[in-house]
């Protein structure tokens, strides 16, 4: 059985939360499903990957890039590599 597709918000709504090319998110590694949820001005990102060896960080970058419709190389964590609160720089 294949995994269900991640639940992603409208790209325009997510882009509206970009401040100076940066997006603040709260990450939850080891989740059952992959989702991005918008709660007011907060972005909650849940990924299946465990928080070991940067796997969850890579999954957060990949999921946010997919939601915004940009290449993964244009979405990088600039702050919070070891924290659940992260700041991503989004180019494009």
Automatic annotation (TrEMBL):
Which InterPro entries does the record match to this protein? Answer: DUF167 (IPR003746), YggU-like_sf (IPR036591)
Q: Which domain of life is it from?
A: Bacteria
Q: What cellular-component terms does GO give this entry?
A: cytoplasm
Sections of the chain in a coiled coil: none
Q: Which residues form the signal peptide?
A: none
Instruction: Write one Pfam family the protein is assigned to.
Output: DUF167
Family membership: Belongs to the UPF0235 family.
- Protein's name in the database: UPF0235 protein DVR09_02845
Q: Which source organism?
A: Erythrobacter aureus
């Amino acid at each position: 059985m294949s995994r269900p597709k991640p639940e992603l918000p409208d790209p325009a709504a997510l882009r509206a939360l970009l401040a100076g090319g940066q997006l603040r998110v709260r990450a939850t590694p080891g989740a059952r499903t992959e989702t991005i949820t918008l709660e007011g001005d907060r972005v909650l990102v849940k990924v299946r990957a465990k928080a070991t060896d940067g796997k969850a960080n890579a999954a957060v970058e990949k999921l946010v890039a997919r939601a915004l419709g940009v290449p993964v190389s244009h979405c990088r964590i600039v702050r919070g590599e070891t924290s659940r609160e992260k700041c991503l720089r989004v180019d494009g």
